[in-house]
Fold:
Amino acid sequence: MPSEPRIADLGEKKLIKRLLKRSRINSLFLNKFLDEHSVKSTSDDAALVDLGETYVVASSDMLMQSTHFPDEMTPHQIGKKIVTVNVSDVAAMGADTIGIIVSMGLPRDMLLSDFDEMVEGVLEACRDYDMALIGGDTNESRELTLCGTCIGFVEKYKVLMKCGAQPGDVVAVTGPLGLAAAGFEVLVRERSVRKIKSLDPDFRALVLKHALQPEARLKEGVLLADTGTLTSATDITDGLLSEIGEIMDASPGIGVTLYSEKIPVPEAVMEVGRLMDKDPLEMALSYGEDFELLLTIKKDNFKDLKDLEGLDLHEIGFVDSSGVIQMIDKYGKTEIITAKGYEHLH
Amino acid sequence: MPSEPRIADLGEKKLIKRLLKRSRINSLFLNKFLDEHSVKSTSDDAALVDLGETYVVASSDMLMQSTHFPDEMTPHQIGKKIVTVNVSDVAAMGADTIGIIVSMGLPRDMLLSDFDEMVEGVLEACRDYDMALIGGDTNESRELTLCGTCIGFVEKYKVLMKCGAQPGDVVAVTGPLGLAAAGFEVLVRERSVRKIKSLDPDFRALVLKHALQPEARLKEGVLLADTGTLTSATDITDGLLSEIGEIMDASPGIGVTLYSEKIPVPEAVMEVGRLMDKDPLEMALSYGEDFELLLTIKKDNFKDLKDLEGLDLHEIGFVDSSGVIQMIDKYGKTEIITAKGYEHLH
Structure:
């Protein structure tokens, strides 16, 4: 007799879709007026609350010790990370930050000094992103669990969403990919081998920084939204291909073609790949945690954007109407590839 | 040698105060303009974001299996509860709801049917409070963990906060106290004794409903805020005395005198107290989870409020300038009592 289905059989993305589909049906019974966007935004990085000329943007992201915090992450870095992942969701909507609420589930025996260091990390990140810690609460829990709610705002006509990509648009990212993935590979390897002697210390420091202390592209998101030339955007938390899949789900009928040669894979990722027998391109495409922004941009406007100060835009492909993700390799050969992002619960 | 201090040595309230004190110092370094209230609201039930004539209100509350969900609570009731605790925080500010984001930490082996039932509970509660589920995400975790973020709004001049109580104000609550506490007593007892035969079945059903499926006083909060006669408010999640302590912390120099005879302790709580050898008044004063609102009201306006339809206001005492909480018993004897609410992490 087959056993009853468990949630791990479905995987995170399908679970969320199951949840949000039910939610949309539920919304039909609402008496209160709800703007089309507030409901539409349930599949976006953050929720939108319509206030006439502006949207208030609210993200919510939960991180837990066993899934998200490698042993090598300090309490200070853990505090920074809960802020960064939430700010990244707000940045992906082109919004600026106002403040964050951090709810904490804490194990009874957590050292007070670790708690203080974690709070210091939260506050340092708040300073980095120029916003306030506007609330928080603590609960007892079996494992360290942090849930952040970042509140931001964006003028309505500037908001960036996952929907809106059009065939012909340029596909671009705000920075190199695969650094966090390479960092996690180094961490895992160094748990058995004391240190990878052959790895350049600067490369090692760079990839570990991206794995343990990532940064959100807040300034970039605000700057890009200001230009009014983006057709869609999201942040790369679950891997490039997975996020492209999200953009495609939100803009039915489109497809994306990538140039393998144009994916910005830094030297450090190449080197880690070589030393650990991992495909660097795979690290750039299918691991997450890079927190760069993935964008689609009207073709005619892309040149002007490239020259904007403070941006490091990389064109990686274009939107088409194929309905699939394709990759053109260095020999000009086109191949259909499958979206394969990092899946919790799998 | 004394061991290093752990967070359990401090307790939840002191931890939050420690966190928010650091947060206020941090805010001094902010470049972005932040309204006095957005910072002030860090000790309130929800955060306030200033938008000119209105505030957007954002709550964030986390619940975990081991601390908040008794085994007897069904997945449907668990789903309802994460919504209710957050709506209660919004209601305590006199705000109306727009929507809620629910982040979930789920054990791998959770039954899909239980997940669906829990989501149905979330959605039913959304219907009850006339709002939308505007976002959600799922993560893998060791124990079931839910974090809700309820977004609401309130016209600025109507907002209710913990600060503002004045000597002479009437202290009131929106309904009976101690029912949830009595329900939890019954649950605990029935884990060893199959059923408490001598307990009236109607009483049993009533107290269990309050323990397992509490409701937030949203309509009452909005109605009361509309009158413009309240000087302060909060919701009773941690017990009446603990919440009075919060109001006193926020309005320095005041004290509160209660009449023991006027505390609304229902028959069902009296009966459970009698059968289980518990003090019914203690259940009403010091346990939490009732989700009624605690209010201070200008004395001259209280009579008009009592006649408002849809309210069940109980006057329980008055604000004074004693700096302590005092209780006048049925013989007219006054005694100083100590705030003693439910403390997580203790």
Observations:
- The first strand of chain B starts at residue 47 and ends at 51.
- Chain B has two domains: 32-158, 170-337.
- Residues 58 and 151 of chain B are 5 Å apart (CA to CA).
